[in-house]
Description:
With 86 residues, this protein is mainly α. It is built from two helices and no strands. It has helices at residues 3-36, 43-63.
Amino acid sequence: xxxxxxxxxxxxxxxxxxxxxxxxxxxxxxxxxxxxxxxxxxxxxxxxxxxxxxxxxxxxxxxxxxxxxxxxxxxxxxxxxxxxxx
Length: 86
């Protein structure tokens, strides 16, 4: 894989996340407007929001290569033994 391919995938990831965040924000805004209009929110609407936010959170956590694996502790190689002086 080349750096250009990695950069392209990163751009796609950022765009997908930005869209998902915008969609979630719009959905919450729509729910608030619905309540303000006197129309109750259904359990199905809350379940859909919770499910989609949970899926997004899981996807981000799964992708996060910095946090999904245990920390790697490099093996410290001791310096070579010093030559004995007489």
